[in-house]
Design a protein that fits this description.
This protein has 11 helices and 9 strands. The protein has helices at 15-23, 60-66, 68-71, 76-85, 99-108, 110-114, 125-134, 154-157, 179-187, 200-209, 219-231; strands at residues 28-35, 41-43, 48-50, 53-54, 89-94, 118-122, 139-144, 162-165, 191-192. The two termini are 21 Å apart.
């Protein structure tokens, strides 16, 4: 999974970045999502346009007036269309969005949502729960940072389809993420998405543990590592 579309071949969260990542073997792209005040969905990680002003404070036209080259290439619809055209999964990391924006995605690409070619990810449990309750065709992923989280408690609240432990800040995340952890996640019926990882030794460990998606800034060496593990 190309983190923010990948860091090579173009700016993050752009078609150019995703094109390069797919060319070197990535089968999914993590894409950050924010929404303007007039409901235009953008592929951008940073929600702050300038101090004290957020993407959601502007209309799309106002953002284009500020920087046409930057914002005109960040329409989420174009980025999703390109990702799907490469038969890659669009993993949408929701930063800021309205219910109408979420519904727009499910209505614009119903087949891709149903086939889980589009996944909805968020670090907000309430948002994951809302998607699960109101958009039943949408598959969700919960990003979390608490290594002591009781995984079994998630089911009654949000029932995510994937868990995405964000433990890259730990000195040794594999003390927490081990075979027992994977077994507990699988017993809940959930898939697994890894934190952003660029060390190939760690990519190998994640592959051997059976993660469904391994997020990385640089897909080319990671794809080679995953392939080597799977054919060995």
């Amino acid at each position: 999974m190309a983190h923010r579309g990948g860091r090579h071949g173009g700016d993050p969260n752009t078609i150019d970045a995703i094109r390069h990542s797919c060319d070197v073997g990535a089968t999914s792209a993590e894409i950050d999502v924010n929404e303007t005040s007039d409901g235009v969905l953008l592929a951008t990680h940073d929600s702050v346009v300038q101090p004290g002003a957020w993407v959601s404070d502007y209309t799309f036209a106002e953002l284009v007036d500020l920087d046409a080259d930057e914002w005109s290439r960040r329409r989420l619809e174009e980025v999703i269309d390109y990702t799907l055209s490469r038969s890659a999964v669009a993993y949408l990391d929701i930063k800021s969005i309205t219910p109408e924006g979420l519904k727009h995605i499910t209505q614009s690409w119903p087949d891709a949502v149903e086939a889980r070619q589009i996944l909805f990810a968020a670090a907000r449990g309430d948002l994951v729960a809302w998607i699960g309750s109101n958009l039943p065709s949408a598959a969700t992923s919960f990003l979390y940072y608490d290594r002591l989280l009781d995984l079994g408690s998630l089911g009654p609240y949000m029932s995510p389809d994937y868990l995405h432990p964000c433990f890259d800040h730990l000195r040794d995340p594999f003390r927490t993420v081990n075979e027992d952890y994977v077994d507990r996640v699988r017993s809940l019926g959930c898939g697994l998405v890894s934190w952003n990882e660029n060390d190939q030794g760690a990519v190998q460990q994640l592959t051997e543990l059976g993660f469904d998606f391994i997020c990385t800034d640089d897909p080319e060496p990671s794809c080679e590592t995953v392939h080597a593990v799977k054919v060995s």
